[in-house]
Amino acid sequence: MTAKRSLLSGFGGYLPERIVTNDELASELDTSDEWISGRTGIRQRHRAGEGDTAVSMAAHAARQALDYAGATPSDVDAVIVATSTPDEAFPATAVRVQAELGMTGGFGFDLSAACSGFIYALSVADSLIRSGQARSALVIGSEVYSRILDWSDRGTCVLFGDGAGAVFLTTATPESGEAGILSTHLHSDGRYGDMLYVDGATGQRDRPAHLRMQGRDVFRHAVSKLSASVDEVLAANSLTHAEVDWLVPHQANLRIIDGVARKLALPTERVVVTVDRHANTSAASIPLALNEAVRDGRIKKGDLVLMEALGGGLTWGSALARL
Ligand code: COA
């Protein structure tokens, strides 16, 4: 009997309607389009409206992922939501999503690994499927960073956006051939916890929590740790840089993305970039980028896709999958 493997069977995304351009931010803050786009590649971001919550955006992305796979909520065993901005301390965003989808079975929980959340959630879901504990899983990143940003701190508030992305994982069958998640690799180092953090819990209404960051230090760690992570996932699968068809990185900063792509010797047309339009949507950024590139036909069946992320913790990791 061959080992179980998980397949990326469905993709979905949700972006709030409201778009905020760099020029609009520059009309409220001492900043400029030139500063923001020159240092990060960001030109605009989506901002959650009154009706957008971590739950509503996650459910929207999840429904799209199920539709893509031709599946229904009754086909889902596990729901994992990676988020740093849940609407409530509990119940978990994931169980609220279960209810929104009309699920009456299975199980759901949230996972906190900041901008690496999607890679962490994908890794956990993959393990559940490989062990046979779940036959399928919705893996969702959903974030409303606009509600934890300090809008007087121009060094952080210009960098983030809101949104949700989802993938639907199923168990590979003999017909799946080589397709599936090949491996995932997770790391964290709490010594760097103060480099990027939120100064409180989201539940404290009388003391709103805000994101704090030492941007330059995060930048330095990002390029070196992500490059090592990319080497690690390829070595684990005895594959070379040249065999990677697509890099789908966490979308924090175009200069970080370019640095890792150079390390892989991947031409820019093989890198999926959304940071210019979405900014950094934390745990949602990779599934949003995947969804876009699969639906517009860039990423095709059989392609080898490398995903990587780094975020607060510090946490970082990578995943390799054949579509
Ligand atoms: N608009 C205009 N000026 C700004 C600004 C803004 N939005 N934000 C900061 N500045 C100013 C600073 O005050 C500083 O001014 P000073 O030299 O007079 O003190 C100057 O720009 C340089 O700031 P610095 O922080 O050194 O810039 P940088 O070149 O390191 O770029 C980041 C800042 C945040 C863009 C960059 O460090 C970065 O991208 N880091 C990684 C962050 C990240 O991706 N985090 C998420 C990881 S998941």
TrEMBL record:
Pathway: Lipid metabolism; fatty acid biosynthesis. InterPro entries: ACP_syn_III_C, ACP_syn_III_N, FabH, Thiolase-like. Residues 251-255 are annotated as: ACP-binding. Keywords: Acyltransferase, Cytoplasm, Fatty acid biosynthesis, Fatty acid metabolism, Lipid biosynthesis, Lipid metabolism, Multifunctional enzyme, Transferase. It comes from the Bacteria. Residues 109-190 form the Beta-ketoacyl-[acyl-carrier-protein] synthase III N-terminal domain. Residues 234-322 form the Beta-ketoacyl-[acyl-carrier-protein] synthase III C-terminal domain. It is found in: Cytoplasm. The keyword DNA repair does not apply. Its main location: cytoplasm. The keyword Lipid metabolism applies. Belongs to the thiolase-like superfamily. FabH family. Homodimer. Catalyzes the condensation reaction of fatty acid synthesis by the addition to an acyl acceptor of two carbons from malonyl-ACP. Catalyzes the first condensation reaction which initiates fatty acid synthesis and may therefore play a role in governing the total rate of fatty acid production. Possesses both acetoacetyl-ACP synthase and acetyl transacylase activities. Its substrate specificity determines the biosynthesis of branched-chain and/or straight-chain of fatty acids. This is Beta-ketoacyl-[acyl-carrier-protein] synthase III.
